[in-house]
Amino acid sequence: MLSLWNDQEAAGFAKDPQLGLRVYSSRLLGQSADLVLHGGGNTSVKSSVANVFGDTETVLFVKGSGWDLQTIAAGGFAPVRLDYLLRLVDLSSLTDTEMMRELRLALLDPAAPTPSVEAILHALIPTRYVDHTHADAVVAISNTPKGAAALRQIYGDDVLILPYVMPGFILARQVFEATRNVDWKRLKGIILLHHGVITFDDDCRASYERMIELVSMAEGYLEQRGALTGSVREQTQGHAHIPARAIDFTQIAGVRRVASEMMGSPLLVRWDQSAEAVAYASLPDIATLAMRGPLTPDHSIHTKVFAAIYDENPVPGLQQFRSDYQAYFRRHSSAHHTCLDTVPRFGVWQGKGMLYIAQDVKRLGVVADISAHTMKAIQWGEVLGGWTALPHQDLFDIEYWELEQAKLKRGQARGEFEGRVVVVTGAVSGIGQACVEAFLAKGAAVVALDINPQITSAWKSAQVLGLVCDVTDAQQITEVLQQAIAAFGGIDVLVSNAGNFPPSRPLQGMDDQTWEQSMNLNLGSHMKMLRACIPFLEQGLDASVVFIGSKNVPAPGPGAGAYSVAKAGLAQLARVAALELGSKGIRVNTIHPNAVFDTGLWTDEVLAQRASSYKLSVDEYKKNNVLGRSVGSKDVARLAVLMAGEGFACTTGAQVPVDGGNDRVI
Question: 0.90 exceeded by the pTM?
Fold first, then answer.
């Protein structure tokens, strides 16, 4: 592991003499997923501040609970009175609830984030800077039968190695007792078995680079014993992605539907078909290996303690996991515990890769990242003599630890479409783009399709999967939907929007190419997309289809025959689909926009042509509706969201205008 420290970058942060370098080195630690993942790890710095009376107080600035080291700012550090924390460590006992109350009482700023549960531990280490990570290499070595001995061999007397205990006050007391007579200047760090690494120094860079040094020594040990090459690279030799034809993608959608029913709310599923995941899922003893426990106990609150095991048909594996988890809960729980949900967060699809399950895209990414690091570390451990995580009782105590559960409960409010998957065609601009934005705002995972290559970079959000697709090509549709299912697990809503407005021509002058292209895109593509989506919509959650039609259906205009006839066919397609799909619980409704001028359909040339056909100026044509209101893409998108949601739960086959009131339609 290489140090990322850069003196020029550090100098910029050092302009804040109190927290600048602490922020900088914390972010360096957070940049390495091999050190910390998704909010893991803790850092602190001791400093002095003047209170309102002008008195100087010694303060511990410690990472606030819920902050991520990768992006932490000065406001993410909680200022806590150091002398107060040092008095707490002298107590013989302190419950978790009492500890958190005292930490809040010790804050200098009541608006600051809640201090990390390790604040007392950071306080008792008598150096200015303290760094704490969950380094993969170190923890992986400790998760082996002779892990403690191996770590002593690596570090000798320079590092204090302590057995696992619960985080928080118990851990602080353990370190306090173990270091009563320690020469802190001689000690390079502390390793907490199955948990992580702590380094410290009065100099920020020295503390950070000592962490890099200790982790590098562990990586060197793994490399010397062939773990780095023997467990990952060799395992993945000969394993590529599973060919799509070998997979029935409706099975993945079925897993998502059943898991959502078990949870009682929509969930997302991701299929990891990477070479590493396939190799891991192909290990001969994977059915037992994946049940042994996580890389660190902290991960269990995100992933649960063990995996689901899926055979060729993965759905029975969900039922088995529920049974196994209930048995695990009965074995380790006390009367005051309430069983959490029984849905797995990660599972081994034997020979095919991994399946991840979560409530939203962000948490899906957390599960995927943790699982990737765990797969790697487990294979290291197997080379070193066998993966041996903590006993399930210790893991249960963390999974059901009230302080960790409190982290998950924060921000539980869910958007209306959170956990649901929406496919939008013609998504790079206009109505399609507005629909993507509207569903994103409601929490949806969105698959955005467009023939324009810009679709792949139009959104930076992980909630959007932008894919290039010619929706007139049935094979391309199949391929992009398979990518969508692999990414999010299913389809709940189809917003079929792609289309164009051909050049204005009277029927007498209509050429075959213009006519056929309009029929192919404005009608045929919608049938092809719907046909391909139906098997997944059947497995969807409150499934719905929204077709974007046109005012030209009820009120066609002269010169727009190729467009109007195609859109009329689309309206009829929607009516037939509503009749055929209603028994499957799939609603089909149509929006008929008009005069939505912020779309790609309305070029200056088309506007001029259409205005001229009505003997109006362009400005008059734009305002030509009963309400005298400007209609935008966002207005259409707002109705699309409404149609796909609870507001239209009992409506199918509807055709609703969004046109400001067109007198011919009325």
Answer: yes
